[in-house]
Amino acid sequence: MNLENLIRPAVIHSAEAITYANQEFCTLVGADTPADVTERPLESFLFEADRAVLTDSFEQLLANDRETCRHQLTIKCTSKAECEAIAVSAPTTWNGQPQIRTVFLDISQSDRDTATTLGGTAIDQAPVGITVVDVTLDHEPLIYINDGFIDMTGYSRNEALGRNCRFLQGEETRDEPVARMRAAIDAEQPVTVELRNYRKDGTEFWNRIRLSPVENNDGTVTRYLGFQENISEMKAHQKELLLFETYAEQADSVLFITDADGTIRYVNPAFERTTGYSAAEAIGRTPRMLNSGEQDEAFYEAFWETIAAGETWEADIVNQRKTGERYETIQRVTPIEDDRGTIQYYVALEKEITQKQLRRQVLDVLSRVLRHNVRNSVTVIDGYAELLASGSDTVDVQAVVDSIREQAGSLESISERTAAIRRLIKLLESDEDPIEMPLDETASIVEHCRSEHADVDIDLTIDAQGSSAVKYGDVLEVALKELLENAVEHNDRETPRISVTVTTAKETDRAVLTIADNGPRIPQAIWEIIRSGQETPLRHTEGIGLWVIYWSISTLGGTIELAPNEPRGNEITVEVPLVESPV
């Protein structure tokens, strides 16, 4: 290596004397030419305190016991009485003889020349670490570090300058990014890597290093400019995100994330399985894609008011799958804020209400309702029995008998409803594959009702095209039987009339069943109790039948609506998802 190409003071020497010096060294020590310093001991330009340490190091270098050595020392300079420098020494060969090459890095002015070249104080005080490495020297020492580097690593300038950046590496530093930096420097190319480094106190941090080659006037790369950024927080966030994604990917519960505007940015596999929408279909849309119409505007106004205030929202809701099937779920939405308290994301977690939970609700309501109704009927019968036993002449025996028969009929109806509920529970608990029901098979259920009630005029219209079927045929059968029985039993007309219409809605892939009667209107209060899902005892066996219908349709993922049948009666419309029946 030609020392004249170095911009730093440098000498070639043995343990006894200087063999050659470049002009920068001559200027540093006040010599006019290299001839003025050759043949002189290097120690003659140093103070006594530094000489013994250097002598030992030089002997080790010449004996090839060390590849390099670095010392902070004081040089006798001409521009001032003395200057602080770091001497970086390495063995070399000069004129066929083993020699030592020593380069001096002046640190007495905080490496002002380099700082000035890079931009002065602004670079020194930049919030990231900035370094300059001299690649013309074998071990590529640091010749400049800014305050950001000092703050990040804990090493002072005196401790870092003159050393190769490898001193920041440690046990957990991976070889791969180090090798990439080495290859880039050898190829005189820029490079960016992320690796674990260690501070002076031994603590680990993640360092993002960007290296760029710097050329001199003749195009030779002489330095590398480095930008070093502590990305430990980012890596910790990435680790937390990875753990979150691992949990989310494996979770059985639906999980999705929206931005502050409500646009879906992430869905987990459970979301895809439950809703039928793929991630590609969901991302970029809003959760309104799952809106079943069961929740009104007031519900969503309260929802947004709560989460926009940074509070968590939790509620039981009804969503709609891609197939049109509805499902009940417990949804919990939590806002995620940044350091300034600004909401950035919303995380929604949904836990579908399982068949076991629905079964528990069925049993709870059954217990409450039946206990209430049976107790009432038994109390009435008992009271009339005591009245008959009294033998009072004022008792209208026929009226009492009629009342007892009415209550007995009520108990019989309760018994029949209990049987239907037991069947529904059995279907909910079954592990067997569901039996599909083609829509045209609804005719047999209607025909059975006709045979049981010959005095009832039942009209059936089936306009279902294709091979569509309802997946859980047994559950639909329970619902349809209850709809027909409810329309028959509570009809007070001399000739009860029931109209059954079965159609398909092509745009939603749903079956639509409409049962209209000419009986008395179903009380709105009872209907609201059924729709709300409250476990409230009902005063009429009519309510029990409506419960059975509601549970059955809910199990099918369908909907049920009540409307007046003009000029008199009720019109109940049921929609349930369809599947393609095998031909």
Can you walk me through this structure?
With 583 residues, this protein is α+β, with helices and mostly antiparallel strands. The protein folds into four domains: 3-106, Beta-Lactamase (2-Layer Sandwich), CATH 3.30.450; 112-230, PAS domain (Beta-Lactamase); 241-353, PAS domain (Beta-Lactamase), CATH 3.30.450.20; 358-580, Heat Shock Protein 90, CATH 3.30.565.10. It has helices spanning 23-29, 48-62, 112-118, 121-124, 147-153, 157-160, 175-186, 232-250, 269-275, 279-282, 297-308, 355-389, 397-429, 442-452, 473-489, 524-532, 541-555, and strands at residues 10-13, 18-21, 69-75, 83-94, 97-106, 129-134, 142-145, 191-198, 204-215, 221-230, 254-259, 264-267, 313-320, 326-337, 343-352, 437-438, 457-463, 468-470, 497-505, 510-517, 559-564, 570-577, 579-580. It has a five-stranded antiparallel sheet, with helices on one face. A hairpin with a 5-residue loop joins strand 14 and strand 15 (343-352). Helix 13 (397-429) packs parallel to helix 17 (541-555) and helix 14 (442-452) packs parallel to helix 15. It holds the Pfam family HATPase_c. Its EC number is 2.7.13.3.
Q: Given the structure, what is the number of helices? A: 17
- Strand arrangement within the widest β-sheet reads 2-1-5-4-3
Percent strand equals 25-35%
How much is the radius of gyration in Å?
A: 44 Å
CATH class of the largest domain: Alpha Beta
Shape label: rod-shaped
Q: What do the pLDDT scores average to?
A: 80
As a percent range, the share of helical residues equals 25-40%
Query: What profile does the largest beta sheet have?
Result: 5 strands, antiparallel
Question: Helix- and strand-based class?
Answer: alpha+beta
CATH topology descriptor of the largest domain: Heat Shock Protein 90
Please provide the count of β strands.
Answer: 23
- Low-confidence sequence ranges: 115-122, 537-541
Q: What is the end-to-end distance?
A: 87 Å
- Can you tell me the number of structural domains? 4
Looking at the overall shape, the CATH architecture of the largest domain is 2-Layer Sandwich
CATH superfamily of the largest domain: Histidine kinase-like ATPase, C-terminal domain
Keywords: Chromophore, Flavoprotein, FMN, Kinase, Transferase
Domain Histidine kinase: 369-580
EC number: 2.7.13.3
Domain PAS: 122-188, 240-286
